[in-house]
């Protein structure tokens, strides 16, 4: 039996009745030497994309259970695509059942509904449920983590790497406050149908009632989520979403000394910066898949200004990439003939494959030229840079970009040039590249 309670507007307490204690807690939070190197914060106006406050926002930090925000993003994406339903059974392997607390305690061989797993993540922050979801959607938790990282790149989270689905300690699992703000905004914008789960105050699993770790729900007016997190290495983390009076912000605090001081600091940031947020909604800030012409990058988020400057009116085009769709295996690239210039050799050595799988990836044009595919995004970017340098005028008007896709548990990154208006233009460009000993193929979008 699962029962849930969601905090309603009628029960919202007075906005900041504990603000008198906030500044005292802030002093403890800010001055704790053991946590000074872990601290980071950012506040973004979710209506305009304007950065209202930032402190160490681009510095590497451990996400802890904020990781589960991306796990849930992937789950919501599958729900929206009709790949699963809320009643889909999620089995627990020995690996999932053995995850350390906090956890539901489901035994290996058992299962729960997908919706129960969602509630377990947003309230209990259950590590075993996170691992079970990862294995269901990714085959293995590490395979799912690679998908999570690829999705992070699509959203514009440039400094985030996931190694597991829960946030349990892993020295290679890193993020930034800015990246977590991007993810918080993306969850709100892309999944309004499911975002309400984050406002769940508690849910009952069997005979146990589990309360949400986010104590600002119901205490600070307008807070509707999102997620807490803690490990010894990370300190106390929190991403908060606030919607009230037409104003909307997403705020992140990382590296708190305690849950109480972290919450007090977040409450103070909300109190200070929410009144500075705009009441005018300028539309979506995060696209599911975008291309920035003329740049070599996986774009995702409309550039969020670090200073008080207006958000550009022109927004990136959005193209949805199908999630969890099976694709044929990549085709090995043809060998580069002896005597090829050093740049071409570097591309061959660093980028493993050129794969001829046709998928929608950009709305820049109907045709693209692909020059490489690699499990390492940096190698794909190197291939784009070196190819452009070698190609000269052939690609002078083309737009380089990368597109992630998953095959047999590995995330690959296609290196492509878009902007070709006809099949003939793309084919001719590829022929010209081959004359320079650059392997490629042309594909229609």
Automatic annotation (TrEMBL):
Gene Ontology molecular functions: peptidoglycan binding; serine-type D-Ala-D-Ala carboxypeptidase activity
InterPro entries membership: Beta-lactam/transpept-like, Peptidase_S11, Peptidase_S11_N, SPOR-like_dom, SPOR-like_sf
Family: Belongs to the peptidase S11 family.
Residues annotated for substrate binding in this entry: 227
Keyword Cell division: no
Protein name stated in the entry: D-alanyl-D-alanine carboxypeptidase
Active site (catalytic residues): 65 (acyl-ester intermediate), 68 (proton acceptor), 125
Swiss-Prot/TrEMBL GO biological process terms: cell wall organization; peptidoglycan biosynthetic process; proteolysis; regulation of cell shape
Pfam families: Peptidase_S11 (PF00768), SPOR (PF05036)
Keyword annotations of the record: Carboxypeptidase, Cell shape, Cell wall biogenesis/degradation, Hydrolase, Peptidoglycan synthesis, Protease, Signal
Organism annotation: Nitratireductor arenosus
Domain (SPOR): residue spans on this chain: 361-445
Domain of life: Bacteria
PROSITE patterns for the chain: SPOR
